[in-house]
From TrEMBL:
Pfam families: Peptidase_M14. This is Peptidase M14 domain-containing protein. SMART domains: Zn_pept. PROSITE patterns: CARBOXYPEPT_ZN_1, PEPTIDASE_M14. It comes from Plutella xylostella. Keywords: Metal-binding, Zinc. The active site is at 248 (proton donor/acceptor). It comes from the Eukaryota. SUPFAM superfamilies: Zn-dependent exopeptidases. Its cofactor is Zn(2+). Belongs to the peptidase M14 family. Residues 1-286 form the Peptidase M14 domain. Signal peptide: none annotated.
Length: 290
């Protein structure tokens, strides 16, 4: 990310959104041909690794950066959109998943019984209704909405670009899903458009995926997977982002157990490629409807 900002100073700015619980930077890139000054342009915000064990999502986000900047063939996407790209939304958890526990999901907030808050239950939207108040749970929501410094960084990005964020993609794994809110099963007022764009994302990924991998399942989170509250995509919807999704990238070699989070080295580039096809489809659907 430092290198991209140095190589493309006219297009890329590296921003540290503020320290994590353990004091690390939360870095993201602003990618814009007009230095974020043209307020008529929509913003597409992509993040990954909110759950630290879901490494394949980070690779897919980096692939998208490569396609936007180094190997760009999509002039509309770089000219007509300002991008915010945050490959590592939970840096403390990510380091911990390398150094200590490959399957760490939450952040690293200290708790006397157990460590960590599930950042994807900590946003201020229906907070605490479909999540756990036990610090030892993998879906522990924290002591209050936005109790965690990491989710506050994400919140500030939405605030900073109020009314300009047209698409928000939170890239997770695993399971081959395009999910949208709300996590309690209720649809936002633009539910129909939200669903149509999701279908176009899913179709684009399906057309690019490996034949042996399953088709993506597209739908409302609660109706398709399980109910959840306080999630990033729900928060985005609630602050007026029209097209907000959680992508679940495919499982490691079809695994249905926790090993589904592992990354097949041979799949990394393909995951980036097919996810980029989905990102492009979503961004173009949104641009055309804007
Ligand atoms: O449960 C989750 O947080 C996500 N699935 S995962 O296996 N990656 O943990 C799905 C969340 C999608 N919904 C929201 N963002 N609300
Ligand atoms: Zn996840």
């Amino acid at each position: 990310m430092v290198q991209l900002a140095q190589t493309y100073p006219d297009k890329v700015t590296l921003v540290n959104g503020g320290p994590t619980y353990e004091g690390r930077p939360v870095n993201y890139l602003r990618v814009s041909t007009t230095n974020f000054q043209d307020l008529s342009k929509p913003v597409v915000f992509i993040m990954s690794l909110l759950h630290s064990r879901e490494w394949i999502g980070q690779a897919a986000t980096l692939y998208a950066l490569d396609k936007l900047l180094i190997n760009n063939t999509e002039s509309d996407l770089i000219n007509d959109i300002d991008w915010i790209i945050m490959p590592t939304a939970n840096p403390d958890g990510y380091i911990f998943s390398h150094d200590s526990d490959r399957f760490w999901r939450k952040n690293r907030r200290f708790g006397s019984s157990c460590m960590g808050v599930d950042l994807n239950r900590n946003y201020d939207i229906n907070w605490g209704t479909e999540s756990s108040d036990s610090p030892c749970s993998e879906t522990y929501h924290g002591t209050e909405p936005f109790s965690e410094p990491e989710t506050v960084v994400h919140k500030k990005i939405f605030e900073e670009h109020q009314d300009r964020v047209l698409v928000f993609l939170d890239i997770h794994s695993f399971g081959s899903y395009v999910l949208y809110g709300y996590g309690n099963g209720e649809l936002p007022p633009n539910g129909e458009a939200l669903s149509s764009a999701a279908i176009s994302i899913g179709d684009a990924i399906d057309a690019a995926k490996l034949p042996n991998n399953p088709n993506y399942t597209v739908g409302n989170l609660a109706q398709t997977l399980y109910p959840a509250s306080g999630g990033s995509q729900d928060y985005a919807l609630s602050v007026g982002v029209p097209y907000a999704y959680c992508l679940e990238l495919p499982a490691f070699r079809g695994s249905t157990s926790i090993t589904g989070f592992l990354v097949d080295p041979e799949f990394v580039e393909q995951a980036g490629y097919e996810t980029w096809e989905g990102i492009k489809a979503g961004a173009r659907f949104a641009l055309n409807s804007n």
